[in-house]
């Protein structure tokens, strides 16, 4: 049996996968202290109940993982968890693998998408992350930092302060947080029905779709930053296709079309019209991709 | 016998290599029309004269190569040369491989440098190129455009027009041409002994080393652009080491130290102090690296 583990703070989703599909799923409710113990017991119990063998367990981790060592999961508050030790104890005969969740999502899209030799996924959530895939393998890099494109310098116009300590990072404008920041910054410059105090990134994107002037202005700025970022990624590591995922990508075609417009404006001539697509995997993305890490 | 072919306009350098060293070398003088015919005959004749078999022939090409098809060599004026066809005719039993010269140079540095899992080389010549190596293999990308980092948007201050059609490209400021452009742009702002009409990039870098105010100002701008570019490459594809090569890198330590200063200023916190080194291979780089493409 092939298990894909999507690690969250207190809820861990585990998918039993076949043929790149989740055929069964279960949830482990746990605490920070017992997280991996509870997850592994859950997998062991599931296999026992279903008379299956545990062949593969893949972990998608919200944090930094290098060679199955979880260096840090900042939002959960765990550091230095050695997954090899954990797995050896609970399923000594299974193959295990792990990567961070942005890499896992990128692999998932590559696996379910049209066959490509390489792809780069950009995940637009609270922050901006990414993942680079060559021949259906995650390229994580020696510091597991490939895909930390949220911290690419891109915004020389505002140079907003980023949480990471730098200024002008892509995620200061292209994340959900960045979208609200831009909408607040330009609030008095455009006519809008948005509420300055309560608007969310989704509200801003919805407003753009409905023709709201502020929404459209922010959409344009976000798309320009992303189009430029993709043009830079393309010359750094040339790929067949870019995937745009994460919560912000729910904005859909209006965002995708605007990103494409700016990508083609800024792309090197040999790389115009590289495919840019919305991510296809929904909620199951984390589990499927984790299940196929190895 | 393992041959590395460094293709130039009218002179092609061929190295016979063993243990990552050039043990013999010969030059083929040719014309655009007869280039690959002359090169292959040269290899065949050399093997015959030395009673050797032709096991491997690697080609470093100044242009775009995809799967042994030379799409374009702009400075030579040849397009659509199928190296498989050429090689089949002259050495049907040899393995052949090819890549562009910037990728070849990057591989060469990775092979002779301290062992690394991945590296990115930046070549500072008339333009700026690059190459990305993982596990001693060139990552060229599906459009053979990985490493076209000369066309990464970096210079929002001047946004000089680039030959490629875009503005603000890295090579508009960090190439030999870019260095002279910057020196001319700021010529009246700094005290200098440089001649506005005749200075070369080497003159500007030499002046910087001698404390010339204009030279130092230009060096600082070039290093800032490169440090920023490396910080962007690092989050896009995290590597163990960056190599700085090409003619401009002859400026040496003064340039390297300035690039490191700006890299560490702009790098994502998890990637500060990644190794940045001057390229070690001299004139033989093209031949050695081509010889070890496969």
From TrEMBL, chains A, B:
* One term of GO molecular function: kinase activity
InterPro entries assigned to the protein according to its UniProt record, in alphabetical order: ATPase_NBD, ROK
Q: Which Pfam families match?
A: ROK
Keyword Ribosomal protein listed:
no
Q: Which UniProt keywords apply?
A: Kinase, Transferase
Q: Which family does it belong to?
A: Belongs to the ROK (NagC/XylR) family.
According to UniProt, the name of this protein is Glucokinase
- The record lists the organism as Anaeroplasma bactoclasticum
Upper classification of the source organism reads: Bacteria, Bacillati, Mycoplasmatota, Mollicutes, Anaeroplasmatales
């Amino acid at each position: 049996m092939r298990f894909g583990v999507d690690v969250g703070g207190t809820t861990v989703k585990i998918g039993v996968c076949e043929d790149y599909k989740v055929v069964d799923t279960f949830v482990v409710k746990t605490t920070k202290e017992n997280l991996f113990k509870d997850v592994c017991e859950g997998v062991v119990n599931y296999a026992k109940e279903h008379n299956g063998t545990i062949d593969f367990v893949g972990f998608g981790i919200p944090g930094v993982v290098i060679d199955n060592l979880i260096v840090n999961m900042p939002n959960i508050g765990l550091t230095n968890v050695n997954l090899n030790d954990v797995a050896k104890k609970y399923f000594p005969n299974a193959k295990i693998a792990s990567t961070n969740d942005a890499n896992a999502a990128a692999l998932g899209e590559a696996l379910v998408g049209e066959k490509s030799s390489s792809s780069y996924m950009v995940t637009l959530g609270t922050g901006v992350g990414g993942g680079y895939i060559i021949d259906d393998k995650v390229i994580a890099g020696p510091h597991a930092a490939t895909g930390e494109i949220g911290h690419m310098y891109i915004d020389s116009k505002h140079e907003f302060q980023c949480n990471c300590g730098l200024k002008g990072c892509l995620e200061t404008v292209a994340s959900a947080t960045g979208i609200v920041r831009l909408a607040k910054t330009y609030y008095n410059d455009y006519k809008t029905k948005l509420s300055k105090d309560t608007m969310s990134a989704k509200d801003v994107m919805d407003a753009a779709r409905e023709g709201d002037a502020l929404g459209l202005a922010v959409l344009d700025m976000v798309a320009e930053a992303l189009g430029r970022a993709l043009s830079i990624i393309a010359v750094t590591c040339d790929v067949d296709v870019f995937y745009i995922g994460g919560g912000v990508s729910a904005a859909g075609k209006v965002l995708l079309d605007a990103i494409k417009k700016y990508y083609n404006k800024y792309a090197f001539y040999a790389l115009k019209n590289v495919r840019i697509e919305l991510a296809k995997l929904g909620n199951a993305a984390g589990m499927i991709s984790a299940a196929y890490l190895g």
